[in-house]
Structures are given as C-alpha cells and as structure tokens.
Amino acid sequence: MGIMDDAKDVAESTGEKIKDVWEDTTDRIGDKVDEVKADADVKKAEAERDSVKTRNDIKEELRDDH
C-alpha cells in the first residue's frame, strides 16, 4: 500500500499546486482589469477637467467682450 499512498499524496499535492496557480492567475487578471478601469477613469476625469476649463475660458472671454 505504500505505492498507493505515495501516488495519492502526489496527486493531492499536484492538485493543490494547480489550485494555487489558478487562484494566482485569476487574481492577476482581476488586478489588471482593475488597473485598466482605473486608467480609463483617470483619462475620463482629465478629459472632463479639460472640457470644463475650456468652457470656462470661453465664458470668461464672452464676459470680457461685453
């Protein structure tokens, strides 16, 4: 029975390693998705800021003309 026990231990160990690699991979993918979303949010906020600044500059110019 020693060989069977060894094979069982190896199978369990391999299964745990595969599970750990899978969890690490899914965590990395999730982290990358979060990073891409954050970058998109920053770009959106910067574009909105620039739009507001441009709009305010135009309004100020119109006020100065009157």
Question: How would you describe the overall organization of this protein?
Answer:
The chain is mainly α and 66 residues long. The chain has a domain of 42 residues.
Please describe the structure with a list of short key phrases separated by commas or semicolons.
66 residues; mainly alpha; rod-shaped
Q: Number of DSSP helices? A: 1
The global form is: rod-shaped
How many strands, what sense, and barrel or not for the largest sheet?
none
Distance, first to last CA: 98 Å
Q: Which residues sit in consecutive blocks of at least 5 with pLDDT less than 50? A: none
Structural class: mainly alpha
Strand content: under 5%
User: What's the total number of strands?
Assistant: 0
* Helix and strand element order: H
Give the mean pLDDT: 94
Q: Tell me roughly what share of residues is in helical segments.
A: over 70%
Rg over alpha carbons: 29 Å
Give a topology summary:
Layout: H1 2-65
Brief summary of the model shown:
The protein is mostly helical. The chain has one helix at residues 2-65. The protein has a domain at 25-66.
